[in-house]
Write a structure and sequence with these properties.
Elements lengths: L3 H8 L4 E5 L2 E4 H17 L7 E4 L5 H13 L2 E4 L6 H10 L4 E4 L13 E3 H4 L18 E6 L9 E5 H14 L7 E3 L7 H13 L2 E3 L7 H8 L3 E4 L1 H9 L10 E4 L6 H9 L4 E7 L4 E5 L6 H4 L4 E2 L3 E5 L4 E6 L5 E4 L2 E3 L8 E9 L5 E6 L4 E3 L2 E3 L1 H9 L4 E11 L3 E10 L5 H8 L12 E3 L13 H17 L11
Parallel strand pairs: 1-10, 3-4, 3-5, 5-6, 9-10, 9-11, 11-12, 12-13, 25-26
Antiparallel strand pairs: 1-2, 7-8, 8-18, 13-14, 14-15, 16-17, 17-20, 18-19, 20-21, 22-23, 24-25
Helix pairs in contact: 1-2, 2-3, 6-7
Amino acid sequence: MTSPLYHHAQGRPTAPAIVAPNRTWSYQALDAAVHGTAGRLRAAGVAPGDRVALVPSRSPDAIVLLWALWRVGAVAVPLSRRLPAPARRAQAERAGCDGAVLPEAEQEPFSSMAPVVSLEAVVSEGPTRGDDPPEQDPERDATIVFTSGSTGQPKAALHTWANHLYSAKGANANLPLRSGDRWLLSLPLYHVGGLAILVRCALAGAAVAVPESEKDLAPALGDTRATHVSCVSTQLRRMVTAGHAPPSSLRAVLLGGGPMPAPLLDRAYADGWPLLTSYGCTEMASQITTTAPGASRSALRTAGTRLPHRRVRIGPDGQILVAGRPLFRGYVQDGTVTDPCTDDGWYPTGDRGVRDAQGRLQVVGRIDRMFVSGGENIQPEEIERALERLPRVVQAAVVPVSNPEYGHRPVAFLRGDGPLEDATLRESLRAHLPGFKIPDAFYPFPDDPGNSGLKVDRESLREWAQARVDDEREAGQDTPKTSSG
């Protein structure tokens, strides 16, 4: 297939492709920059099929580099900027990287790889393109993206270009984009949700709006006159609780990355934010199900319906299984690709779900988060939803800690917009939950960088809580007892 950048550079050369704080790139200019950068990558020794590590910022240079790697036929391996350098190097080795393209100041941990190319030297404005359209095999490998690791060690997911392409096609069928639209680059380019923004915009001839570095999301929406934005619950919560109103240019807020607290959805809906809720995963190259634009408040409490090019079913154990063109090739580990799908091609997501009478998916929680307490099954997400319905509770995360009498007991971490008294919380929860599901303890979220980002690091919370409970036991303090009511 012909590169979508080249297609728009020929058909609408002056249409904006990137809107950055100090410059707007037309499709013609972007295609030329990608062409020139691809040439420099080839000259530096990057070949088709090479796995190339990068640590992308949300910047035009990172966008140019990604498209140039794909034009060369290389496999882009974007690594998180939040990780320390040794951890990034370890992930690059797990992914089997053949080289890296990095700013000169970040190259030292990767010095034994070949080639290690300077980002400053390789990104080029490029010459004017010739008439030969660049061709891309849609079935070739395109990216290795690490999962968030919120339920264990991050896994290296290998996608083809077709996976990203059909993910974007299905998303655009539900939420149409057109030339002149601007999708704010609100998610990191080392997340599949960030990469999905690039591909959706390129297919539609829309623009990627790059926010000013470190600027909060709400002002960035206004400054860039964005028409579309992707958000996780943390980002939406920050805008809503700060009292921001949606700018007049904004037509869609695509919500994903995990469950959305019902009170947050209700408030954002009442404030006029144009919401779409969704369910997706790295392995399916972003969205799987999504609500339609203009969905009702009741519909927004679901994850919507299946998008084109996907298949979804609920297994006998309640697990959500998915398949279709966006489904990845498998996980990369020790130089091999392991396919985790069933014999008939379904990927077990590890999430529990049900469909409502309208066929909309409702995600109940993670199968691997359920634990047993005194012989009773406890799904932490159920307790979290109950907590987030209570006054002044903004966010909740529930994890298990070991207990000599019951095996495990739930404890909760909370963020609030006012004082939260343990006794009041327990009494309020009794109207919604049986006694054995009421947490034994309530803690504020610890001041931990791992829990200040877009997703909660539940394992670090569990370890913190377990250490706290162990210390209390050693000190002879009694933990609250559960009741069976």
